[in-house]
Write a structure and sequence with these properties.
6-stranded antiparallel sheet; 24 helices; binds acetyl coenzyme *A
Length: about 700
């Protein structure tokens, strides 16, 4: 475990620099909170003009403290912070909790950088600036100006928003969802989410890691660190701005938005994404109390048809669709319900269900090998006591002794149901007040198991590539002062990375065009090659299905004429003569260089699917072939690749392999390539492979 970070987040002693004698001031509140939270470590208030605060001796400077100091909470105005940081460094403080605002969030970026430089010079880490502070139940530590320690629990939450952290602190009591640590991460000048992932993974009191994120720093490192973690991570990402999209030069660039790339990155990192604050709590509760759901079979037990139907709909929505249990399981469950009950899935014990039926059916179902996850629903009835039902469910689960599969519960009713649910949560079973929430929680546990399985997939990084050729082509384009590469240049780079393109040759005069067409074999396609004409069809720069020599000659002349009419001073490199590939299912592969995550690959179905429906999916590159295969399956049009309406299945294996190679290429060339498209990529029948028909690479501006 990182000792310095531990000193910052679980300090054995804390100095409060800027401790104030005036109640209500932040510097006073932090001292008061440390005392009231029962913190057993040293508390050292620092103030040059006070002697005592809340019964504690006040020092003029950290340098006067006779004992070692792990963390310093800084509550002096911004203009004093750098000097204070230097003194803390000299004192040998491990970490600075910089509560003070007025740094990069208001444009004072240089001062913030200087703060980090000073800290690093002394081997210190900085939390913030602009933070509320840090709280830890297991250390009785409230080194913040949040009012109290959160309800105790086994999750830990890190929030980029300080105000939200304070709100969450209070919500933990109303929602009865406990946290061990709450950490305000503020401007993330130094300690960021990537640091917190690894540290919380090693923290013995944290079972589930929850993040409220507005924007990541070091996106790729966040993914890499998260992949190493053995605990569930759930994030709520705020902000829906589609940055960069407007300025994009490629098709892919216009489709990539921050939110989509973040979503992809979280999936890759094995992180579960919550939809809103409530969902963050719900998922955190389930993930901190229950193991992942490792198989597909979810069984739902209910005493009401209505909640059963609602839960069934949700099961489909949250990726845990219901299957019927085997006959033998149904036969046993039938014993715990009246004749008019149903042992199908959901298992409807009916409104007559009492404590025993709940207990016996829950116990049998949870212990049965067929069941991978169990959701128990209850509607409050006049004949039953919710607390007794809760205790029956709890006893049934503990009686099985099983801890490797999950259960979630929903009680729908009034106050008595609320109390029963609270009791369940306090006794280790996640319970929710609506059936869809219990199913959503199970969906998160299933997703966690799926993401865990995907984490183990190795990424191939030893593809055979001709780097020299690729770099030579890029160097030539740079020498020309261009960033847009022509189709033929782009395809040569694709080929250097083993991507299959249709045969394409450059002709600089009509005679060359004819002889190349004859060599390639008719029919052929002729296209203009000019860095000044990126949208070739719009310029009349494309002729397809040319069947003979006369056709080549005519097309050659017409295209040149059209190009000149389109842009009189266009720099024309010639025309490409291209094999006319037999048509097949059109897909698109592309890339962008995301400001947070770097090289990012996109896949979608081509033609109208991409133009109108924007049916595409993203991943941060590089990716494993299995991850590539998952991308093919997650677009809405996925069934088209599997063969619909009598069509034979497409060569998904070859497509996934090309997608993984493409992701490797853009990672390898990430220092140069800004955006790229392979569009269309034709996908033939199984075993027949894929071919890239058109290619475009746009280099970074340097
Ligand atoms: N060493 C020690 N103490 C010092 C020093 C020093 N070098 N310089 C000043 N002090 C003392 C002051 O004398 C004062 O103590 P006193 O009240 O006994 O006289 C104390 O430090 C505080 O200084 P003030 O000048 O009174 O500053 P004030 O308390 O008004 O504000 C603060 C300081 C809170 C750091 C303010 O500048 C600030 O940044 N506020 C925003 C903090 C915040 O909200 N952070 C989280 C953002 S997230 C969210 O929005 C919830």
């Amino acid at each position: 475990m990182d000792d310095v970070l531990t000193g910052l987040l679980r300090p054995k002693s804390v100095a409060i620099v800027g401790a104030s004698t005036t109640p209500g001031k932040i510097g006073h509140t932090v001292v008061k909170n440390l005392i009231e939270s029962g913190y057993q470590g040293g508390i050292y208030p620092i103030n040059p003009s006070a002697d005592e605060i809340l019964g504690l001796k006040v020092y003029k400077s950290v340098l006067d403290i006779p004992e070692p100091v792990d963390a310093a909470a800084i509550t002096v105005p911004a203009k004093f912070v750098l000097d204070v940081a230097k003194e803390c460094g000299e004192k040998g403080v491990k970490g600075l909790i910089v509560i003070t605002s007025g740094f990069s969030e208001v444009g004072e970026t240089e001062m913030e950088q200087e703060l980090v430089a000073i800290a690093h010079q002394y081997g210190m880490r900085v939390l913030g600036p602009n933070v509320v502070g840090t709280l830890s139940n297991s250390d009785n530590l409230n080194a913040s100006f949040a009012p109290f320690l959160p309800l105790d629990g086994s999750a830990s939450l890190v929030s980029q928003s300080g105000a939200l952290l304070i709100a969450i602190d209070a919500i933990t009591y109303t929602r009865r969802i406990g946290f061990d640590k709450l950490v305000s991460i503020g401007n993330m000048s130094d300690v960021n989410f990537a640091d917190m992932v690894g540290w919380l993974d090693e923290d013995e009191n944290t079972k589930c890691i929850s993040f409220y994120i507005e924007g990541l720093k070091e996106g790729r490192r966040f993914i890499d660190e998260s992949l190493k973690v053995s605990k569930p991570i759930v994030v709520l990402k705020a902000g829906v701005s589609e940055h960069g999209a407007a300025a994009a030069a490629s098709h892919t660039g216009s489709l990539a938005g921050a939110q989509k790339v973040y979503g992809a990155a979280f999936k890759q990192a094995g992180v579960i994404e919550a939809t809103d604050l409530s969902d963050l709590f719900d998922c955190t509760l389930a993930l901190s109390l229950e193991p992942p759901m490792k198989g597909e079979n979810l069984l739902i037990i209910t005493n009401g048809g209505g909640v059963g139907v609602l839960a069934t709909d949700s099961a489909e929505k949250y990726g845990v669709p219901l299957n019927f249990a085997p006959e033998s399981v149904q036969a046993e469950l039938k014993k715990h319900m009246p004749s008019f009950g149903s042992a199908k899935n959901p298992v409807d014990l009916t409104g007559m269900a009492g404590n025993d039926w709940y207990h016996d059916s829950t116990k049998f179902a949870f212990a049965h090998d067929w069941v991978d996850g169990l959701v128990v629903l209850y509607c409050e009835t006049a004949m039953t006591n919710p607390m007794e039902i809760a205790k029956s469910i709890h006893k049934a689960i503990t009686d099985t002794g099983i801890t490797h599969k999950p259960v979630t519960v929903s009680f729908v009713g009034g106050e008595r149901s609320d109390e029963a649910m609270q009791w369940l949560v306090e006794n280790g079973i996640p319970a929710y007040n609506a059936p869809d929430l219990a199913v959503r929680a199970m969906g998160a546990l299933r997703e966690y198991a799926r993401l865990e399985a995907m984490k183990a997939e190795p990424i191939q990084n030893d593809h055979k590539v001709d780097r020299d050729t690729a770099r030579e082509i890029i160097a030539k384009v740079r020498k020309d002062g261009r960033t847009g590469m022509t189709e033929i240049e782009s395809k040569k780079i694709f080929n250097a990375y083993g991507l299959p393109t249709v045969r394409t040759e450059l002709a600089t005069n009509e005679e060359e065009a004819v002889s190349m067409a004859e060599e390639i074999g008719f029919p052929v396609v002729l296209k203009i090659v000019s860095p000044d004409i990126l949208h070739k069809s719009d310029a009349g720069g494309v002729k397809v299905n040319i069947k003979d020599e006369a056709g080549v000659r005519e097309a050659y002349k017409t295209i040149l004429e059209n190009a000149k009419n389109y842009k009189a001073d266009a720099d024309i490199h010639g025309l490409v003569i291209q094999e006319m590939a037999p048509w097949a299912t059109e897909t698109i592969i592309g890339s962008v260089n995301d400001p947070t995550f770097g090289a990012t690959v996109m896949f979608g179905l081509g033609g109208i699917f991409v133009e109108v429906l924007k049916d595409v999916t993203f991943r941060v590159a590089p990716i494993s072939e299995k991850e590539a295969a998952a991308m093919l399956d997650e677009i809405r049009g996925a069934p088209i690749l599997d063969g619909t309406r009598g069509e034979s299945p497409r060569d998904k294996k070859a497509l996934a392999s090309v997608l993984a190679k493409y992701a490797f290429m853009i990672t390898d060339l990430a220092d140069e390539v800004a955006e790229s498209d392979a569009n269309p990529v034709l996908v033939y029948e199984e075993g027949q492979g894929v071919k890239v028909v058109d290619a475009r690479i746009i280099l970074k501006k340097k």
